[in-house]
């Protein structure tokens, strides 16, 4: 039987294919070629974890206690209007000591007045955050109609009003320092009696 040239070539190729083992493909990890790389040249892959990072690496508060709404964590939050008013008056009562400290450090009269106003203003804002929405809205409405602002008068507004009444700039600053230490007696009387928790 005669074989033409092309069929003999085909048979030779098929015979050689059978005799040479072909590499097998596999999905297993063992079949992948092993390569060695130095650890310094390959960046480490980040590991995923649902757990929180260790607390040892977290920055700590330098004073050792976090503050929330100007009150120490763990301190009892005022919950009734009378407790909130008492807390507010306590913040205001700290203004004279702060002013004396600033005066001893050589602060200007203007800076002392600004500091007194800032303490009083922040106490007002924080106290309203403690209150219920309705009570807070009433006080903000009162401030808006009286001062044109929801959270009480600004420092510049108080200075301007004092100057309009004939006071000098130094007298205006002195008036702000003194008035910031006094609370509204009518509001004090409203919240003097214990009330239900908000």
Q: How much helix is in the residues?
A: 40-55%
Order of helices and strands: HEEHHHHHHH
Portion in strands? under 5%
Taking pLDDT < 50 over at least 5 consecutive residues as the criterion, the unreliable ranges are 6-14, 51-74
Structural class by helix and strand composition: mainly alpha
Taken from the alpha-carbon principal axes, the silhouette is globular
Q: State the end-to-end distance.
A: 109 Å
Calculate the mean pLDDT score and round it. Answer: 74
Number of helices: 8
Number of strands: 2
Rg, alpha carbons: 39 Å
Main sheet properties: 2 strands, antiparallel
**If strands are numbered along the chain, what order do they take across the biggest sheet?**
1-2
List keywords for this structure.
198 residues, two-stranded antiparallel sheet, 8 helices, 2 strands, 2% strand, globular
Short description:
With 198 residues, this protein is an all-alpha fold.
